[in-house]
């Protein structure tokens, strides 16, 4: 194992659940405003996961007041308090960009079986 992998291993968090595209997740993120900290929850569908090691990021999409909102989170960021997986969707591709064009009930995903 080279030096870079050893340093990355120290910064990886083991308390986070495995995240896959198609999952509906709640991301609890620590927000600092004017010296105060609060927790903000962002709930949506994971549409992509990319990168490896400590540079892994995932993008979550939700529809808020009829407008699609996407937010990209670094997986091993210290600002992420916790991640809850509320639903595991059954999908057949790694990037779910096609959800951007769909509206309403068409955006629902089938639940993944065990």
Named CATH architecture: Roll
Total count of domains: 1
Helix content: under 10%
Oligomer state of the chains in this structure: single chain
Nearest-angstrom radius of gyration?
16 Å
Function: This protein is located at the 30S-50S ribosomal subunit interface and may play a role in the structure and function of the aminoacyl-tRNA binding site.
Keywords: Ribonucleoprotein, Ribosomal protein
GO biological process, one term: translation
Protein name: Large ribosomal subunit protein bL19
Characterization of this structure:
There is one protein chain. The protein has 114 residues and is mainly beta. The protein has one domain (3-99): SH3 type barrels (Roll), CATH 2.30.30.790. Helices cover 8% and strands 48% of the residues. The protein has one helix and six strands; from the N terminus they run H-E-E-E-E-E-E. It has one helix at residues 3-11; strands at residues 23-33, 36-50, 57-64, 67-74, 80-90, 110-111. The chain has a six-stranded antiparallel sheet, with no helix packed on it. It is globular. It starts with a helix and ends with a strand. 12% of the residues are buried.
